[in-house]
Amino acid sequence: MQEQPDIVIIGSGIGGSTLAAGLAGSGARIAILERGDRLPDTPEARSYSSIFVKGHFRPREMWREPDGTEFNPGNFYFVGGNSKLFGAVLLRYRAEDFTEMQHLGGVSPAWPFPYEELEPWYGKAEQLFEVRGELGDDPTEPFHSSPYTFGPVPDEPAIARARAELKAQGLNPATLPLGVDIDAWLAGGRTPWDGFPNTGNGKMDAETASLASALKDPNIELITSAHVDTLEAGPGGRIEAIHYTHRGEKKKLSPKLVILSAGAINSAAILLRSGDGKGLANASDQVGRNFMNHNCSAMLAINPFKRNDSIYQKTLMLNDYYLTGSRDGLPLGNVQLLGKINGDILKANAPLWAPRFAFDFMAGHAVDWYMMTEDLPNPESRIMVDGNGIIMQWRRSNMEALSGLEAKMRAHFKAAGYPIVLSQAFDKRTPSHQCGTVRMGKDPKHAPLDTYCRAYDHPNLFVVDASFLPTSAAVNPALTVAAQALRVADHIATREFRS
C-alpha cells in the first residue's frame, strides 16, 4: 500500500478482523497492523505438554500488579490474537444481559441499547464464523431470527451419557454453539481444540474466518510484526498519526479513520501511553477502568468406574442457573465443558512427589467442566501503564456467585454418580475473557465511546474489541464482539467513510 490508507485497523483479533470483513467491498483502502506473525504449524501446536506445562505459546513479557509483583500473562500475540487458542464457543449474550441485573456482588448495569438492536448482527456473525449449533434446549436462549446454518458438533459417547445424566435430574443441558469443523480439526491431530492453537482450518477463529474473508478484498492489506506504540491527536481531537514499530523500524501512518482493536488490555494501554503520556479518549477518566475478567473455575467430576475416552469433549453447556439459583433468586452463571484434560495438565499443578499414574487415572475417569460467573464493572478495577509496562489492578467481584454455582454443580454431579468432585479457580494468568476497559455508553461523562464505539473525544477514532463491553455477562464474549464489529462496520461504511 504505497499511499496512505483510508482506514487503519490496529489488531487482527475478533474485533479488528471482523470489522475488516464488514468493510470489505466498501472501496476503502484498509491496512491492518498486527504486532504478531502468523502462527506456524509445528509439533508443539498439538502437544499437551508444550502448551499447558511448558507454556510454549505464552508471550515473552511480564505484567505487574500494583505492588510490583510480576506475572506472565496468558495473552497471545499472533495473527488472529487470542482467538487462535480460544475454545471456539460462539454464544450470544442472553437478552437479559442487556438489562440492569442485580447479582450477589452488586449490580450489572444496562447496555446503552437492547438485545434486539444487536440481534440481526449476531446472525450475520454466526454465518461468518460458520457456527455449528442447535436451538431449543436452553431455557435462557434469546430470540434468533435466523437458524444455525450448520448442525451441531456431535457429542462423544461419554458426553452423551453425561447429557442424559443431567437430564435425569431435571436439568436442561444444551448444545454449545461452536466454530469448529470437527472433521477438519481431527484430521490435523486427535486432540481437543480448547486451548490448542489453530494452525489449520478446523477452528473458525479471527484469522481463518473473518480475516480470510476480509483479505479477499484487494484494498485490504495485513501488515504483521507491526507494534503500535502511540496515537497522535491534532487540533479538534482528530487522530493525525499512528506511530508504530515495524520489524525494528519506526514508522507512521495518517489515515482518515483509526480503528483500535488491540484487545481490552492493550487498547487501553495504547490510549493511556498516547497524547505525550497524558492519554487520549479519556475526558471521562474511564480509559483503563472497569476491567472485567470472568470468575472461572475448572471442576472435575470423577467416577473411578466410568472411563471417559473423549477426545475433544467440549459440546455441552448448562444455563439452568444463569438467571437464577442463588439466594433471593439472583443469577449464578454458565456451566460448560472444558476441552478434555490429560495427566500432563493435572501433574503440572500438583506437588512434584505426586505419582504421574494417579493423574492419568483421574483424567481418564473425569468429565471436565468450566464454571463461569459475571465479573461486575468497577472503576477501581483497572489497567494502568508505566512507560511500556502494563499494571493490572483487578478487583474481582461477585465471587459468591462462583462459590454458589460450584456448590450447585457439585451436588448435581455427585447425584449423577460422580463421587469425587474437584475444583480449581483460574487466576489472572488466564485471560478469561478480558473486557470493559474502554466501555461504550450514552453519556460522555461516564464512557469513552458512543454506541457505535466511536470515541467521544476523537471523531475519527473507534475502539472495537472486548474493551467496549459495558458488562461481562457470564458467557464467552467472542460472538458479541463480532456482532458489534459488523454493526460498527456497517455504520462506518454507510455514514462515516462515505461522508
TrEMBL record:
SUPFAM superfamilies: FAD/NAD(P)-binding domain. It holds the Pfam family NAD_binding_8. Keywords: FAD, Flavoprotein, Oxidoreductase. Residues 201-295 form the Glucose-methanol-choline oxidoreductase N-terminal domain. Its cofactor is FAD. Residues 430-485 form the Glucose-methanol-choline oxidoreductase C-terminal domain. Belongs to the GMC oxidoreductase family. This is GMC family oxidoreductase. It comes from Ensifer adhaerens. The lineage of its organism: Bacteria, Pseudomonadati, Pseudomonadota, Alphaproteobacteria, Hyphomicrobiales.
